[in-house]
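ARCHIVE CARD
Drawer: 12
Card no.: 0347
Subject: one protein chain, sequence and derived structure
Cross-reference: see card 0346
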Amino acid sequence: MTTARSKDRWLFATLAAVTTVTAIVSSLGAPLVPSIASRYDVPISTAQWILTATLITAAAATPALGRWGSGRLRRPVILGALGVVLVGTVLSVVPLGIGPLIAGRALQGVGLALSPLTMAVARDVWSGDRLASRLSLLSVATVAGAGLGYPLTGFLAEYAGVSGAYAFGAALVAISLGLALRHLPKHAVGVPQAVDLPSVALVGAGMVCTLLAVSEGERWGWLSAPVLLLAAGGIGLLAGWIVRTVGVARRGGQPLVDLRLATHPGVLGPNVVGFVLAFAMYGLLTVVVLLVRNDGSDGWGLDRGPLSAGLVLVPYALMSVGGSRVALRIARRYGAHVLLPLGSTIFASSLVMLTLEHDTLTLALVAMAIGGLGSGFTFSSLPMLIVPHVPPSETGSAMAFNQLLRYLGFAVGSAASVALLAVYGGHEAAFRATTLTMAGVCLVAAVVVPLGRRRQRR
């Protein structure tokens, strides 16, 4: 009994380590964006790609790894992905310039695609309340890991530079890889599913083109030929992916994601809110980092170093985990359906507070704590809402699509928040308008989800 319990604990510790560490490594960099822009003499919008590239890779890789890892290949897929993350982290350690740094960060994005696979392993091993509790923790681990990555980045960057931060990340990934080799189950039920690689390419290329247009629009000119061509090309590629996905499904093939399953009445709401809150979450993280680092010459900013920019996100990470535990109790008493609108509203309130008051570090810390609470409510509830509406064989695929939408939201929020600041003029009024815009998006999600639920009942 003791041996079985020990194996159980080590397996969950391994799954939590894989999810948390890859999120930490993927988030290494946000407090460094202003420093990297200065170091390599590039605009903030270009330096922001050390985050955006990671998230685009995650969005494209998540459904692919979800398919490959849906059966007996689950263990080698997880191990192989961790190896890719390790290579990308090592590449980021070497100071070769902004291009190789972005390339290394893109490889690290493969790690974020592992979260659905860790949840699939959990569903294979546990059931009942234990499964619900551990799915909740694994779901919020991505958010908490990202939050923990920021203070680590700030601390290491302050005393060891950019290369030191990524060297630490490489060590964490190596430890996680060792745990996975030792404790991941060697056998899994099911047959590996085919992956539509052209769809992976369409999603990745479409996101790169679209977000390039968004991030560089202010600098190149919103009506300039490069921006218009990139925007049209990106939208066309993403539309082509949707058309291809529908066509593959009609021919009886295996699409990258099952859009019919993704738009099921019980799954559509969580998917929409997952995207919206992810957009607002990375928008909030980006503007708070810029708020702390900005020197105040534009009328806003606290003129602090990367360590402060990292520490300001600690309450976000802690409250994300705390919020997920409170959310479980609320779900058991009132039902999981109340968590999405409640979490969206709480998150919007953090942005409204930041809009009204942002003159001290203390106010930023309080706003981030409130945002973390809303994030914990929302992201921890997504598996509870989605899993009962999908067959066991499609759990990995369904969660992978939800994760894909989250990463798309992260990527769009990362690029759009900087673009909005520029569009609104860059001064304090622009900061207020940007945070208020993101709060409005969250409130729309909070209203739409209950309406969709009532329509589903009718």
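Annotation on reverse: Residues 382 and 411 are 19 Å apart (CA to CA). DSSP finds 18 helices and no strands in the chain.
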